[in-house]
Amino acid sequence: MRDIERYLDAHPHSSDTLLGVCDWWLIAPLPPVIVLAALDRLVRDGRIAARTIPGGVVYERAREGNA
User: Fold this and answer.
1) How many Cα atoms within 13 Å fall on the side-chain side of residue 59?
2) Looking at residue 67, what is its pLDDT?
């Protein structure tokens, strides 16, 4: 979760899918199931937002009124 938040602190306008987060946002590789659990927790806590798009979900920094 810290790596995801650090990435978004450095790149506040970023958004990506689960696989993009795994490939680009993390310092060390982790299995997607672990990353998804972290993303789900961050979404539940209102720290990031999940937006459904055709073909999947995109994760991004939570903004006022979008978490």
Assistant:
1) 27
2) 45
pLDDT of residue 65: 55
- Which domains, and CATH codes, for the chain? 2-61 (1.10.10)
Beta bridge partners of 49: 60
Query: Does pTM top 0.85 for this prediction?
Result: yes
Task: Return the residue matching tokens 């927790």.
Answer: 41
Q: Are 23 and 14 within 8 A, CB to CB?
A: no
The C-alpha atoms of residue 39 and residue 46 are separated, in whole angstroms, by 10
List Cα–Cα distances, 52 to 16, 38, 49, in angstroms: 11, 17, 10
